[in-house]
Amino acid sequence: MLQVTQMTDSNTPQGATLPASLRTVVDELLAAERLDVDALADALHKGDVTAEDVAPWVGWDTDRYVRALIYKDPRFEVRLLCWRPGQSSALHGHGVSACAFRVLQGDAIEVRVSGATTRLGPGDIGKAVSTDTHQLGGAPSSPVGLLSLHVYAPPLPVDAPTTSEGGRVVILGGGFAGVAAAVQLLRTGRKDLRITIVERGDTLGLGVAYSTPFDDHTLNVPAIGMAIDPSTPRAFYDFVRDRRPEARPWELVSRKLFGQFVQATLAEVVRSAPGRVRVLRDAAVDVLPGPTSEVVLASGERLTASAVVLATGHLSTKPPGLADADPRVITDPWVAGTLDRIPTTDRVLVVGTALTAVDVLRTLRAQQHAGPIVAVSRRGLWPARHLPEVVWTGSLAFVDPETAPRTAHELVDWARAEVARHKAIGVPWQPVIDAIRAHTTRLWERLPHDERLVFLTEVRPQWEMVRHRAHRDHIAELKAWEAEGGLRRESAELRGLAVAGEERVATLRRTSGDELTLAFDRVVHCAGQLSDVTRTDDPLWRNLLARGLVTPDDARTGVLCDDQGRACNAQGEPTGLFVLGAWCRPNRWESVAAPDLAIRTAAMVPAVIAKLPLPAEASVD
């Protein structure tokens, strides 16, 4: 580790004199009446420091980046940070300090908890106010090390990076599940906790569900029911009330707002917890098991960890036919600007009629789309509608799971009987379904294998329709569009997409058995998730299957796990990995919604901590 040169009374390293460019930076800061982030950035701009100017302070370390102090007084400090390619800080805030930095050599990658990842080159200047939480490091692909000149006002209370040694956890996936795991692990207070989140996307905590840029795309769970940690059940509602004092607890607020809450929670916990989190923009392709696991990344980097958490989210199904690269086939409608770029006269095929499709269609309508639109799904049904006030406040619905049968179709009859019984006493069907939902894990566990298959093929679509409900006004809006003739629904299965002459065509098979061919200009694919892990072409999951680290269940609803989220083999023995999300459905059917994920994560955290080495004080050099 490079030892920073001792400072003299003149605040310059022994044997070194500040070059004119650095002196300009210091003089500008000394003359500034107020040292806010703009003043710091302005001083760095006027100084126009180069890599040659900081040569006396340059030094490298193989294990972590190096901080070298150039100038310090009670109001501010100037430091040179030296990073080998791929080295980075952890996510961090700056306390009460403002920060600005200038890239002198190499390429920097900045990850912001609230915002997108950015790349900065020589001459670029970055800013971070005291409320920001970010991470900086050298681009792994850069041919040279990164040199960045930083100004902090007031000075930071630390002189060197925190050690990377400690209890290492690698979380594969930085969507909601991965961030929920990081938040709950950090809240355990382990000082030596070192978490690495591997995420291929540009944002944290959003995933597919909360990455929508549109304010009117709402949650389908009331604000009071959403959480990232079950130990703080009101946190999201309080977050909403801080921004909208008139908000009611049972309101369906925007998904975008919940994404902001997830990011704000991560930022707050990062700033307050003693553990550390680092983010890698990469993708895992394999895990090599052992007393200490090794995670292999697509870039070739390898990470060691005592615990590995699979929080990759679901794998989307793909439309059959045209390649993913075809610009007319949209597989992720929430990539910024994607729907905006659809010409309003295009013929659009929307594959799916569930919640994602509802939001896509409402967005197209808001953009005054005039071309014909066809929405297709096997049953051609919109989601059922929420009550006007979303949550029933009348007589409570009560169902006894002990009276429930153990076959799929008899369960349907039982549910209908419960709805009829409650209707007779003035209780609508929605709270009855919610009461049944509280017991779905138990009901699922009791179903024999053959009956699970019946449920998946014949009953599941009906259950999903009433379980995942939509805002009643949104469904009314789409039905009005249908009545106007601009939108049409088809009960059919998409069989393929192809090019026929100058046209792109979709082949559909209706439930009646006859085929239908539609010409289209754009396809927006909103058709669910892949639950059969054996059908994926994702290299990580293919390798995990081959190594026996995950085991598909017989019904192909996910992979086998225990109640602590540990992946199991066919004999029910833990294989050393942890799993979050939809892949846990064989053990816990309700594993997808944020409230369920928060509860699942809370059950997993003690088992993850138990896999780490005995706690040791995290040292600072």
Describe the structure.
The chain folds into four domains: 20-153, Jelly Rolls; 167-315 and 531-610, FAD/NAD(P)-binding domain (3-Layer(bba) Sandwich), CATH 3.50.50.60; 318-384 and 470-527, FAD/NAD(P)-binding domain; 401-467, no CATH class. The protein has a seven-stranded mixed sheet with strand order 17-23-18-19-20-21-22. A hairpin with a 4-residue loop joins β12 and β13 (293-297). It has helices at residues 20-31, 37-47, 176-186, 235-243, 255-272, 355-366, 408-423, 429-437, 440-446, 449-467, 472-484, 539-547, 594-610, and strands at residues 66-72, 77-83, 98-105, 108-112, 118-120, 125-128, 134-138, 146-153, 167-172, 193-198, 276-280, 284-288, 293-297, 302-305, 307-310, 315-316, 329-330, 348-351, 373-377, 487-500, 503-510, 515-520, 522-525, 529-530, 566-568, 574-579. The chain has 621 residues and is of the alpha/beta class. It starts with 19 loop residues before the first helix and ends in an 11-residue tail after the last helix. The model is unreliable at 1-12 (pLDDT under 50). The protein is 26% helix and 22% strand.
